[in-house]
Amino acid sequence: MHPLQITLITANAVGFSLLLWKGRLDDRLAVLVMTLTQIGSFALTEVTWNGMRAGLLSMDLLCFLFLWGLAERGGRWWLVLAAGFQLIGLLGHFAPFLAQERLAWALVTLLWGVWTLVSITVFFGVWEVMADRRFAREGRDGARMDHGGGARAAASME
Hints:
Blueprint: H1 3-22, H2 25-43, H3 54-74, H4 77-92, H5 95-98, H6 104-138, E1 145-146, E2 156-157
Antiparallel strand pairs: 1-2
Helix pairs in contact: 1-6, 2-3, 3-4, 4-6
C-alpha cells in the first residue's frame, strides 16, 4: 500500500470518527457511504471492462449518487463539497477516452487528488457540525442585535 493511501485512510478514520460522534443522521450516513466506497474500491480495483476500471467507476458512481442525495436533503455544505469532488472523480474515469493515448497515471493522480479533497472536506464537515451545535446553543450568529432606537443606517452588532 502506498504511503499516501495510508495517510488518507488514517485521516479519514479520524474525521469519520468525529462525524459519527458529533454529527446528525445525514452526516453519519455520509460516513457509512464513504467508508463502504473505500472498502468497495479496494475490493473491486481489478474489475475491468474494455480497458476501463468498471469496479472503481461503479463505486464512485454509487458514492456520488448517495452523497448528492444526502446533500440535497441534509443542508450541510460539506456534503455539497464532497458530492462535487466525487463528481470530478467520477468524470475523471472518462478522461482516457478523450485523449489519443491512455492516461492511466493521470487518472490515478486525479483519483488520489479527489480522495485528498474529500478527506479535507470531512474535516470541514466536523467544523460545520460543531458550528451548527454552537449556533443552535447561542443563537443564529452568536451575537445580539442592537436595534437601538435612534436613526441609523443599519443595525450594529454588539
